[in-house]
Amino acid sequence: MSVMKRVSMMFRAKANKALDRMEDPRETLDYSYQTQLELLQKVRRGVADVATSRKRVELQINQLQQSSDKLDRQARDALAVGREDLARDALTRKAGVQSQLNDLNVQYTSLQGEEEKLTGASQRLQAKVDAFRTKKETIKATYTAAEAQTRINEAFTGISEEMGDVGLAIQRAEDKTEQMKARASAIDELMASGALDDMVGGPRDDIQAELDRMGAGSGVEAELERLKGELGQGSAPRQIEGAGSDADGAAADRAGTVTDGLPTQASPADQPRAGDGA
Amino acid sequence: MIVRILGEGQLAVDDSAASELNELDAKLEAAVERNDEPGFRSALAELLTQVRTLGKPVEPGALDTSELILPAEGATIAEVRQLLTGDGLLPG
After folding, report:
1. Cα–Cα distance between A102 and A170 in angstroms, integer?
2. What's the pTM value of the predicted model, to 2 decimals?
3. A184 to chain B, closest Cα gap in Å
4. Which residue of B has its CA nearest to A38?
5. How far apart are CA A256 and CA A252, in angstroms?
6. Which of A12, A149, B65, B87 has the fewest CB atoms lying closer than 10 Å?
């Protein structure tokens, strides 16, 4: 028999079974309405849970993206100072981070889809619950218990199908959220344990340390050359640099002379400029 | 007739479309029996597309039961088997 037909019969059978358990038809209405309100609460909590999970994944995506950008910068810096080995190292780590990122992006999209579906389910259920409430009051006011039976059965079966559908949607969303939570925790643990630190940077970022060391090293060399120049031991280019500094000093002196008329005001303005020039 | 797509809601489809939908549904059923997941996926996708194209959304406040209920998009054979045994259904 047709799949679609059989599924619909299963939903109906479920509703009939629930109806059979109720003795007083009017009681059915109130009891069912309570169940509907509970399910509405549940589906709203479901939406909030999925949203929380999605935000957590979003946070991790942002963190990993920053790491990826940083490794990219490091690779450029390393290449700029001729350290291809370091650049390769940084790019290898970036590839690792990127693969985690791709995985997280897939999860993010999937959670977003679940969130949309559950939100829709919640809205549809809300509309049916509202309709049921109105119908329930009409039935109670207008019909005797015996007369009401058929109408109650119709209303109950109708909303029961929606509830079954929403129930399935919640289950699916819960399953997905659980999976995501487990994966998100695994990534958080990886980050906390430092296993990703090597990729991500942070306290044990050896690529940055090496680049910093080289940066500091060249600074020291330059300083050394400058000092040698001042003492007349340096090479010719360094002496030219030293001469440049003298020229700046002379300019500052001239500026001082121009503002001689206003000594108290001129001095503070002059000082930093002379300092900049040195 | 009213057709429900699980996870999407109810659609009103003209009765004249019944034979066409039944044909597609037969494909779906055959795929479930063969345990042919790719065949199932394509048959389900085809069926869903057709129902969405032919159907008009039912007013959300209506309390009508559906004549036909279709698995949600992306459902697996295992999930459909659960539906058919009633295992996956919450008490309504």
Report:
1. 26
2. 0.71
3. 23
4. B92
5. 6
6. B87
Distance CA A34, CA A148 (A): 19
Rounding to the nearest 10 degrees, give the CA dihedral for residues A18, A23, A24, A29: -10
- Low-confidence stretches of chain A (pLDDT < 70) are 1, 145, 193-204, 215-220, 234-278
Cβ count within 10 A of residue B60: 16
On whether any CB of chain B is under 8 Å from the CB of A79, the answer is no
Interface of A with B in 132-151 (CB under 8 A): 132, 135
ipTM attached to this prediction:
0.89
Question: Which of A8, A157, A167 has the CB atom closest to B90's CB atom?
Answer: A167
What mean pLDDT do residues B56-82 have? 91
Pseudo-torsion of CA B70, B78, A46, A33, nearest 10°?
A: 60
CB atoms A154 and B89 under 8 Å: no
pLDDT tens digits along A111-140 = 999 999 999 999 999 999 999 999 998 888
Q: Which amino acid is at A217?
A: G
